[in-house]
Every structure is written in structure tokens, then in C-alpha cells.
Amino acid sequence: MEAGDFKDFAKAMTDYIAEYLENIRDRPVVPLVKPGYLRPLVPEQAPDKAEPWTAVMADIERVVMSGVTHWHSPRFHAYFPTANSYPAIVADMLSGAIACIGFTWVLTMTEMDLKLKFETMEAGDFKDFAKAMTDYIAEYLENIRDRPVVPLVKPGYLRPLVPEQAPDKAEPWTAVMADIERVVMSGVTHWHSPRFHAYFPTANSYPAIVADMLSGAIACIGFTWVSWNYLH
Predict the structure, then answer these.
(1) From CA 96, how far away is CA 208, in angstroms rounded?
(2) What pTM was computed for the model?
């Protein structure tokens, strides 16, 4: 997938997720399908050519959502809801794009130092935030070779960039976007840079970033068949 297709796909998924979560109470809480429902809906063999993203979007309701238990429905009372939110979905997009394994301080200083507090977000703000993040990610990955591979900052760089105490009022998403380069990216090792040779690149792609958006929105723990039918 090229950057332009990613931007179209991610923005379409953003609209889908907002509509899904805003109207989740109208869906059956548990799936109405039976075991094996997925078999006739997918080909017996993987296709020789991948489907375009528009075909994937068209299949979401028919193939995926028909087998999902909607944990964030107000009528779901079997377990506590899983932890998801509009800001978390957007943060997962950026995390998936960076795709850095932060097991040492130098590999991703930001992971070691940074905690962000977001304001409660409505669907409209989520759509604006996610679409702005989509454009940012596409630009980041298309021009990643122009960035220093490893951070040029020193330990403790983050301390003067963030307040000593959590603010009384959370930041709007526009302020978070404005801080990404200054606060986050300055402490990141860019694993997908063509000049990064320390380890194998992590597994990320434009389609995977979009898939993570949908997974984060559904936020269902599939430990039984009835919770997550389409896995079977």
C-alpha cells in the first residue's frame, strides 16, 4: 500500500469507527451467527492478488462485525468494559507507525519518560484527530530516511518539556499534535529507516496500522467463541 491509499483507507476507517461507537447500542450485544459462519464467507485459498482497501471496508460488516461481541455496548454486562477511548485509538496509530521496540533507553527515550493526559473526546474531535494523525503518519513514513536514525537528545531531555505536575485540565488534541515532533519524535529510534541496521525491522505496514484502529475500537477480549466468533 502506498501513502495515498493509506490516507484514504485510514480516513474511511476513522469515519466507520466513529459511527460504530456512536451507535453501538443499536447493535445486538452478542453475535447472532453460529459456529462455522465464516467458512462460506472467505475463499478456500488465499488470492493471488491482494484485495484493494475498498473491498476490505465493504467486508467489515458482513465478515467481521457479524461475529463480534460488542464489549462497549451499554447493554453488555458480562465483564468490565475493556480500556479504550478515542485518544487511545489515535495513539495506537502513531505507535504502530513508529513500530519501535523500546527495551533500552536509547532505543526509544520517549517510551521511558512520557505520559500524556487527554481530554474526554467526542466523535467529531476523534475524526479530526485521527485524520490529522493519518496525514502525519504518511508524511513520517514516506520521509523517514531524512531523519536521524537514533535520538540526538540526552537522558533527561523530556523533563523540561513537560509540566512537573499533571495539569488540572487535559490538553486538546491539537496541542498534542503540535507536541509530537518536539516531545515524542526527538526521543525515538526509527526502526523502519533504511539506515537502521541494528535489528530486523518490526512488522508494520499501512494496512496493519488501519487494522489496529479497528481492533482498538472494538476492544473485545476473545477468550471464548461467543466473544469473538470470527476468529474461529
Answers:
(1) 8
(2) 0.65
